[in-house]
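Field: COMPLEX_INPUT
Field: COMPONENT_COUNT = two
Field: RESIDUE_TOTAL = 282
Field: MODE = joint
Values follow.
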Amino acid sequence: MQGGRAVTPTVELVLFLLAAATVLVAGVAVVAARNLVRAAFWLLPCFLGVAGLFVLLGAYFLAAIQVLIYAGAIMLLLLFVLMLTRDAGGALAAPHNRQAVWALAAAALVAGVTLSIVVAFPWPLQLAAARADTAAIGEALLRTYLLPFEVASVLLLAAIIGAIVIARSEPSEPTS
Amino acid sequence: MMQSYLQLHHYLIVAALLFAVGAFGVLARRNAVAVLMGVELMLNAANINFVAFWRYIDPARLEGQVFVLIIITVAAAEAAVGLALVLNIYRTFGTVEVDRVNTLKG
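Field: COMPLEX_OUTPUT
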């Protein structure tokens, strides 16, 4: 990002609108799709659109991570669990529960309040030259933010072990 | 250099809408896996906000990006543990519908 933009403002705007529309349309499809496998696959354009927004913002490393972790690992995990649980085939009568209307009202309220604040608030903008190549991020992670980095790795290890223990199928003591 | 049309609030608007969509999914979906999908959408909205704030408010410091990296790590952990719990619920109750897992209901 040091050397100035490679794309003109118009192209950038078009790319932004494309990515934003992809994210929002796919997001709505994720929460509205009747077939859950389709909903999981709609996550893919949504996550890729978010990666596109990261690229437009100049966070190239995060865009790559987004594709690898979200579009790769997490979506695959969701698909596997959908396949392992029987409700997957879309045989459900209704995809939403009885409080769907209230949920819609609550989501609209959240959107309305957040949007009004976001548009009205005088953000202290500052457009210095952004330096966010991967080397800088690596340096920040291993110097300034070494402790959170290591804590995150311990958390990941604990979560993996916990997930294995919880999901292990053993005919131990009968619950319920 | 030409001025960009994009401003901070464009990204924040997209993130706010995505967050609301994810919140609707969490509140209204019956299937526990679909609820987790809504949670992932909300986390993605938060990540967009972090990167946008980093880019437009304090690009000299990398807190925004580091935060997003930690959030993605935590989201992966959350997905793994959450889906393991869903699998266990399915084995115990024979369903993953959140409305029918109501043993604690009086």
